Amino acid sequence: MSDMAVVMRDVSKAFRGVPALTKVTWHVRRGSVHGLIGANGAGKTTMLRLALGVLWPDVGDISVLDEQLARENAAIRQRVHYVASGRPLVPSFRVEEWVRYASLLYQAWDQALCNRLLKALELKAGATIRHLSSGQQTSLQLAVAIASHPQLMLLDEPTNGLDVVVKRQMLQFIIDMAADQGTTLVIATHNIEDIERLADTVSILYRGRMIVEEELETLKGSMHRLQVVMADWRPGLLEDGRIIAVERHGRTAVITVQGPAEPMKEYFRAVGADNVECLDLDLTEIFRVILAKEGYSREALNWESL
Ligand SMILES: Nc1ncnc2c1ncn2[C@@H]1O[C@H](COP(=O)(O)OP(=O)(O)OP(=O)(O)O)[C@@H](O)[C@H]1O
């Protein structure tokens, strides 16, 4: 058994000639919680659907749980569960009918666990799906996914529509369940705070290309933000290759740097800074800086220019 749950090599996929993914290489370690992040349209859902085997790449190799994906992949589908919030369930089914349907699909189905989850989530067996709120429908999908005991769970914006209390509890529950059962979790989301709290490894997609694959801690240590106070900002002081971004307000500058903080603090002290302090740089900011380096912005989305 390899230590990877998913490996994609040089995978490309286009829809009607328009590339959605270009030469993507991706690794998800077994037993990890992996955050797949990217802006709207970056290709996250396409990646997950390829890993599930419901989409087929134009070129490239995909292996999931040590099996090379083939068009006939019923066996692997037993071990992988995909949950996308907003994915339509059968609206005329009652909760119990949906659960019964799922129970017939999955050999590892755990009815007792499903019953406990439905109770905890206050989902009534007799309720008709169309009468559930979108958050309740997402909760139902997550409960069914958990009860199917997958080895790999692919969650696509799993918490859309959930209120903060259920969202936190549900994510924590899934993480605990995954840790207990050795399930690999992939969470594709815009909600970077969730990834920062929960993930071990992170990948960032940008316009169909994989631009970062990293341990979360390594990624967080790869950049720092300094606040530097200096009376004389002489020309050339900010032309160091390690400096990624600068915001200057008079004597104070907030400077984002690549690599460790200490050598840059020493650098600014040596060139005459009056004060140098490290500021917090969270994953959302790191994501923003990485995308800005790639040239991503939504400048066109500006009231004046519409
Ligand atoms: N079935 C399809 N037919 C045509 N184009 C598609 C199809 N599925 C995805 N695309 C296109 O592929 C690109 C990637 O879409 P995808 O849904 O994978 O992105 P995403 O990162 O999940 O986006 P979001 O965060 O907005 O959900 C987009 O340009 C999208 O329009």
Automatic annotation (TrEMBL):
Organism this protein belongs to: Sulfobacillus harzensis
Keyword annotations: ATP-binding, Nucleotide-binding, Transport
Record's protein name: ABC transporter ATP-binding protein
Protein family: Belongs to the ABC transporter superfamily.
Residue ranges of domain ABC transporter in the record: 6-232
A Pfam family it matches: ABC_tran
Source organism superkingdom: Bacteria
Any GO MF annotation of the entry: ATP hydrolysis activity
TM annotation in the entry: none
InterPro entries: AAA+_ATPase, ABC_transporter-like_ATP-bd, ABC_transporter_ATP-binding, P-loop_NTPase
